[in-house]
């Protein structure tokens, strides 16, 4: 199966091999990860286990900002999505290969099993799931059509995970699929403005090597939207050999996500998962002329031009022979 991602600029993915997983505070739907607390409390009473509804709700509310999603779509020809997510057709569409039974998507997905969010049943395994579209919020009707017979083993992580898998049917045109992960699994984190975070203790520790194994750090000079100078902090968690140390840094950085939608949490993807690039009708020369060497490591990478179908409101795609 091929799934697609609309992007304003494909450089992050096709030059560097990183894809962003978006934290809750940065998602564009204000109903993301919302659910009926009243219905969940009622549903909890039907569980054949000792999950306490108050503790369950507390767990979800405290941890939902530490979860992130990577979104894909089945639709490569949706005019609204080209306009909204591909910078008004100036961007591009990246195609990814997903295969039933196994997925080669991440270069090496970090899965440390002794953090607060990890339970015996691990949902954050990098698999892709189709979004469910409904008119009602989560849990209002789920006692009738979801199987919770194994909830005593799956625990509260099952519920934390699945609140990210349902959206209003107003979004059904997006035909969305998601990989749901923990922010603490990220391979690289980019802090948008060092001045905002320099007084945080663990950031100071990181810069002063106060823990046994620190991540590699790079500084990038940049400008804010108002023109003021700032410095971005690139933190490479993927280079840490110790799982324990990486987990410490990953969880600390995940705690910053709630009120900071500008922070980027990036995951390194396997080059073999990238199969195509489709240029928007208005794609810039910079996008069109870039070689994009990362996906070419696999030897299978196709490019397409997009054209308007003058007979109706649709797009046409033409393979570029190289």
From TrEMBL:
Domain of life the protein comes from: Bacteria
Xref: InterPro entries: DUF2971
Name by which UniProt lists this protein: DUF2971 domain-containing protein
Organism, scientific name: Candidatus Sulfurimonas baltica
Organism phylogeny: Bacteria, Pseudomonadati, Campylobacterota, Epsilonproteobacteria, Campylobacterales
């Amino acid at each position: 199966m091929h799934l697609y991602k609309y992007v304003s600029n494909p450089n992050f993915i096709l030059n560097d091999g990183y894809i962003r997983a978006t934290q809750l505070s940065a998602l564009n739907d204000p109903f993301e990860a919302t659910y009926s607390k009243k219905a969940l409390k009622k549903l909890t009473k039907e569980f054949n286990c000792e999950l306490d509804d108050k503790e369950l709700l507390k767990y979800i509310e405290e941890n939902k900002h530490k979860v992130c999603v990577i979104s894909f779509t089945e639709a490569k020809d949706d005019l609204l999505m080209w306009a909204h997510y591909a910078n008004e057709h100036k961007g591009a569409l990246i195609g990814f290969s997903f295969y039933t039974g196994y997925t080669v998507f991440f270069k090496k997905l970090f899965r440390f099993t002794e953090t607060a969010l990890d339970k015996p049943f691990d949902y954050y395994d990098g698999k892709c799931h189709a979004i469910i579209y409904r008119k009602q919020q989560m849990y209002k009707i789920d006692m009738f059509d979801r199987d919770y017979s194994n909830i005593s083993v799956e625990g509260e992580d099952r519920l934390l995970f699945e609140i990210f898998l349902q959206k209003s049917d107003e979004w059904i045109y997006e035909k969305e699929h998601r990989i749901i992960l923990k922010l603490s699994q990220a391979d690289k984190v980019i802090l948008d403005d060092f001045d905002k975070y320099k007084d945080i203790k663990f950031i100071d520790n990181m810069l002063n090597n106060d823990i046994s194994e620190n991540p590699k750090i790079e500084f990038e000079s940049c400008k804010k939207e108002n023109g003021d100078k700032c410095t971005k902090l690139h933190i490479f968690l993927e280079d840490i050999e110790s799982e324990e140390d990486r987990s410490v840094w990953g969880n600390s950085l995940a705690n910053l996500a709630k009120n900071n939608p500008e922070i980027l949490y990036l995951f390194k993807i396997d080059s073999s998962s990238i199969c195509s690039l489709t240029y928007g009708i208005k794609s810039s020369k910079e996008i069109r002329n870039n070689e994009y060497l990362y996906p070419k490591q696999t030897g299978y990478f196709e490019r397409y031009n997009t054209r308007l179908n003058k007979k109706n409101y649709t797009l046409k795609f033409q393979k570029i022979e190289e």
